[in-house]
Amino acid sequence: MQRDEMQFSTLLLATDNPMGVAPFADYLRFRGLSVLILNNGHDAIKYAKEEPVDLLLLDVFLPGLNGFDICRQLKDAPETSHIPVIFMSAMTETVDKVKGFEVGGVDYIIRPFQYEEVFARISTHLRMRSLQKRLQEQNERLQQEIAGREGMERALRESEERFQMLAEATFEGVIVHDKGEILEVNPVMETLFGYHRDELIGHNALDLMMAELEHGILSNIRTEFENLTEGEGIRKDGRTFPVEIQTKEMPYQGRQVRVAAIRDVTWRKQAETALLESQKYARGIIECSLDMIITVNKDRKIVEFNHAASQVFGYQKDEVVGQNIGMLYASPEESHEIQRLMQQHGQLSREVMNRRKNGELFPCLLSASTLYDANGKVFGVMGISRDITEVKKAQAELLAAHNELKEKNAQLKELNASKDRFFSIISHDLKNPFSVLLGFAELLALNIDRYDKERIRNLAQRLFASAGRLYALLENLLTWSKIQRGLMDCVPKPLRLREIAAENVELFQPQAEKKLISLRNEVLEQASAYADESMVSTVFRNLISNAIKFTAAGGSVTIASGSQRDGFIEIIIADTGVGIPAEMLPRLLKLDAQYTHIGTAGEEGTGLGLILCRELVEQNGGTIWVESKPGKGSTFHFTLRVAAA
């Protein structure tokens, strides 16, 4: 579309941000468009109905009405249904684009956009609209000419006798000639060729035509056949114009002559040219489209197959034209389902699975619409589809990256918790036992000459207990540190679980007897596991120590073996102690959310025992969990791989 044509085009820009689009509007005005900006949906509809608008550039979100509703109302109104609507939006979802086309939009522009690209799209749609107007105008002129021709026929029938004969022969310019010599002409001939009647009578009819018509005219003269000939007529001023000549032999004044009806077909040639240009333009758009465009007839045979479709499917056009569309689907079932939905709804938009020539399956986003002829009868279906293989791949990669990021975040959180807990132990849990140990040692050193034996024994026992707790903390801390740094090797071997349980029962028997607690080993003789012996013993030791610590006098601690399932054996350590509140159970085995409690005899924990148990069990491929009720006791379960027979 040329710049001077642009000056006659009016673009209505409806947006919720007039200031934001003002620079773009100025750019369009500079390129020759007349641009009006409105910021209300109702105002846009009213203006479009009252004033001539060549194109509407429409925001999806507007005050009053959204863009989809505005477009739907305009397309429903006869006076505005012809206006092309281009949507503007920052929404990139395919469903929003599809909805825009469903309500009648011709294009969908994603913000932010390049001015040149949008101008190119606007120019394209204005050009298409201009061609439509021209075709409509030419059609109206054609109707007017047809009406004029009918009026001329009526006039000829009412004219004198000589013109009655001419009216019977033709609807346009008429020449009566005898072997080329003009005998009579009608007034239309005078108008067509610019000659007066007297200038034509007696002259050779061939003088009115271009040389290439001579053979056809002479053939009409020399034979009795009535032929239809096309060529170029020559007006008196030398200008040429396309004509159509039809001849007929008739009696005239007692002899047989030839009557030639000459029609000016300039309007038809122009319409044919415009139609051809429109078809070429539409063909160019179809072939240049990045989307696959395929049309089928009512028998589902492929009629159109554009270049993009050929590139994606791997077929040449002549390989598929005339074939059933089902050959392009991954399965006959889906092909039949698409056919059923089209018959039911007339259009659809959905994801389908297609098949390339080489047999490869790939996903596509299909938008299909039924095609109707001038009488409203269905003559086919047009489908526009896009290969979304890369989109699917990108979505999968994005999901994988998202999951990986979640996993990394969880790992980072756990590492941060480990770091925080490590510093807490160094700054607090390790400092306090040393303070107690040093305090008792200092008290004993300063007063050893003054204290009696009983007082000294008491302080020595307290020093021993404090040193024991400190040693346990250091031992757990060193073990945990080795695990975190990957320095603790897991060397699995077949283990007899009852023997390991017995060793730990013997170790903690004095402590249990001191608190009057029954410590029982009920692990079955045949119970075995395939695990690292040192790690498993550490787990037993920590869990038995905790069970004794939180069980009051007269209670019991039981070590037992449970069932075997899926290659794992379950070990159970149950006590009748104080139990754990339900809300605290999820925190027990987490480093970043620990639960601490003083034992029934005032014992203090190291803060790492259960965390070590979890990590050591997991290093050996097992899992650990706990069940507990306040006042009823706690039961710890962990699993290990069963040793091969």
Describe what this molecule looks like in 3D:
It is a single chain. This protein has 645 residues and is of the alpha+beta class. Helix 16 packs antiparallel against helix 17 (453-484). It contains 20 helices and 22 strands. The chain folds into four domains: 3-136, Response regulator (Rossmann fold), CATH 3.40.50.2300; 159-270, Beta-Lactamase; 291-387, 2-Layer Sandwich (Beta-Lactamase); 489-641, Histidine kinase-like ATPase, C-terminal domain (Heat Shock Protein 90, 2-Layer Sandwich). The longest helix has 44 residues, at 115-158. The radius of gyration is 49 Å and the shape is elongated. A five-stranded parallel β-sheet has the order 2-1-3-4-5, with helices on both faces. Strands 7-6-10-9-8 form a five-stranded antiparallel β-sheet, sandwiched between helices. The model is unreliable at 598-606 (pLDDT under 50). One of its GO terms (molecular function) is phosphorelay sensor kinase activity. It comes from Candidatus Moduliflexus flocculans. Residues 348-400 form the PAC domain. This is histidine kinase. Keywords: Coiled coil, Kinase, Phosphoprotein, Transferase.
